[in-house]
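Q: I have two molecules that I believe assemble together. Could you output structure tokens for the complex as a whole instead of separate predictions?
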Amino acid sequence: MGAGHGHQLHFHGHSRIHRFPAHLKVLLLLGFMLVVVATPRDLYAAFAGYLVALLAVVAASRVPPTYLLKRMVVELPFVFFAVLLPFVATGPRTEVLGLSVSEHGLQAGIALLVKATLGVLASLTLAATTEPQDLLLGLERLRLPQQLVQIMAFMVRYLDVVTGEMQRMKVARESRGFTARNPAHWPVLAKSAGALFIRSYERGERVHLAMLSRGYTGRMPR
Amino acid sequence: MSTPVLDVRGLAYAYPDGHQALYGVDLHVHRGERVALLGPNGAGKTTLVLHLNGILAAGAGSVAVSGLPVTKDNLREIRRRVGIVFQDPDDQLFMGTVRQDVAFGPANLGIKGAELDRRVLAALDLVGMADFVDRPPHHLSFGQRRRVAVATVLVMEPEILVLDEPSSNLDPASRRELADILRSLDVTVLMVTHDLPYALELCPRSVVLSDGVVVADGATYDLLTDDDLMRAHRLELPFGFDPRTVG
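A: Yes, here they are, computed for all two components at once.
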């Protein structure tokens, strides 16, 4: 068992960005996102400015750019949608690389891509420089309702347990000669997901019993 | 005779779906005893355990802990007096660090600050896990998590420690380490187990629960060497183990 390693998105470090108070980081991220989303989509200079600012933060955090780049695959569905937009949107047409595409669609696609990339990169930077524990404390300091913070804390705690269980179920399926290759196999996956849900639900009940046994009355002790 | 730490009288319970799990159980455990609760799967062992701290409420009969009856009004004190270590440590350890997890119980009782810190470290010391106080529990080995789970209960300074299958899923070295820890503790123990050699090693006395009633109560050695009793209640010793050669 490894020593004190954090979550998969977290990159251990001691930079100024790492030490910056978590609740301020959350507020900054939120503010940054609002500004990015509210910027008119043809102000390319502004977006370039945001990107430079963000890259400066990444550089100061000393998180390797490749580390963040690899985790940006989460953006792929947006990329797919952004690439599709110029082809499916209607209105005046224009030529790009010999293809006829919708002008509106092209602009909307580029804007979506730019804004999503900035958002994902900013969020990943927050996750890479903040321990999940500190993030939760930060949210608490921002007066997020106790119940929500508790739910998130349990999610952080049990994410590994549930993904471990999911992995073991997958291995057990494959050991009996099953690999999902086409939609005909989806019912099996759906049943596995159902079983996983029930197991997690029952674990939730057992955790609750264990908490009651140690005097839990509905509020986390401080 | 002194007040027993655990006093269960005529306890009966049926689950809401109508399944009757306990039919009048009587059980007394006195201070300082280590008692094994044996019985086949489905005998009602876990149901009985959940009555001891009032998670389940008795259908008939009563449970008292050091003279205090298990009722709704006493739940807080009852749950301090009865420490249950559940079978899966992942159910019991749910906070971000070992320290927070061990502090959870006493903090619920209103203990804070330096006193809380002192008790957390003392409890972890008893199970040899004090060096891991700031680690996240899910990064510990299974045996270490089981020991931390024991600490989360010891920290409440319970009058009786109830362990559900303490040796399950442990490798032999972890199993022995836990036995050493349990022997070193100055606390009354009720241990639910299928691990009969473990029961013989740790508990001078055993109680056999079968089909919701206590069918035997006596010296562990005597019960394990009573072949008719063992056969009648689906209890089997592991291959090659003979209590007569170790007892």
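A: One point stands out. Chain B has eleven helices and ten strands.
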